[in-house]
Amino acid sequence: MIQVFVTGGTFDKEYNYIKGELYFKDTHLQEMFDLGRCTLDIDIKTLMMIDSLDMTDADREIIVHNCRRSSTDTILITHGTDGMVETAAHLHHSNIEGKTIVLTGAMIPYSFGTSSDGFFNLGSALAFVQTLAPGVYVVMNGRYFDWDKVVKNKKTGMFEER
Length: 162
Description:
Helix content: 25-40%
Shape: globular
Strand order of the largest sheet: 4-1-5-6-7-8
Radius of gyration: 15 Å
Strand content: 25-35%
CATH superfamily: L-asparaginase, N-terminal domain
Oligomer: single chain
Distance between the termini: 31 Å
CATH architecture: 3-Layer(aba) Sandwich
């Protein structure tokens, strides 16, 4: 089984057309798995629905706690892209042994339709979480990165090797 933890981020944002603002309602993950015809054994648990720019160390400890408690050794975390690398480092330094933990996200909300990179990143993350050795990774743009060898290029919106 693959444990999926939802933390929010652009992946799950909705657009309020009247106010012109992004906001959180519910996760889109189950719908995405269904539309993608995913047949994997997946358990989805929402831990929080926040923008990663607002994530605190206390929030990261909630993620760590749930990763430790998970009975599976394959964990996928949906996360906002701005704080993803920081959370990956926090998870690594928490010494969670024997588990493959993959963080992924989107630059464009799933609710925006085919312009979103969310589907692609989610599919890539599912493949990588099943095949990578235990450790903490960031999966974006069809690539995986070790937790300490990745940076978000804020000019291009792409993740690249540090």
